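Trying the structure run again after the queue cleared.
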Amino acid sequence: MAFRSRHNEAQAIFEILVRENEAMLMTYLRAAVHNQSAVEDLFQETMLVAWRKINDYDRSCPFGPWIRGIAGKLIMAHFRKAKSDIMITGCETLEYLSRQIEHIHERSGDTWEQKIDALRHCIEALPDNYREMIEMRYFKRQSASKISEITKVSLEAVRKRLQRARAQLLDCLRRKKVVMEAGT
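Done. C-alpha cells:
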C-alpha cells in the first residue's frame, strides 16, 4: 500500500511539473525542430523518458532545465536518425536555447503565459511590415527565401526587416521588464 501511495504522489508531482513547464518545453522543441509532427513526437518521447527517469530527478534543482536536457538529447538523436539538414548547429545551440528560455522563465510575471503575453504585446506593437515578417518566419515557419517569394520583397530586405524586428522586440521586452520590476 505504501508503494502505491508513493507512486501516486510521484505521478501527481510529475503531472504538476509537466503542466508548469509544458509551454516552455514546446517552445524549446519548436525552436529546434521545424516539423510540427516531429515536435509532437519528441514531446511525447520526452515525457516518457522523463517519467521513467523521474527518480533520477534532483528535486532541489529546477525541473525545466532537467526536462529540456532530456529533450535536447532526443532532438540530437532525431537529427542523427533522420540524417536531415539540421537547422541547428548542435549541442551548443540547444544549450543556448535552453539558457534563453531559462532567462525568460526567471523574469517578472507569475506564469509562462504572462511572459509570453508580453512578447505577444510587443509583436502587436511592431510596424505592420515587421510584424508580417515575424509572423511568417516564426509562426508560419517560412524561410527567409520563401517569405521573399511570397511578399515579392528582396531576400536582403526580408533579412533586414527580420533583423530590425527582432531588435525592436528585444527593446520592447527589456522596457516591459523594467516596467514590471518598477511596478513590484
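The chain has eight helices and no strands. Worth checking whether this holds up in the mutant runs.
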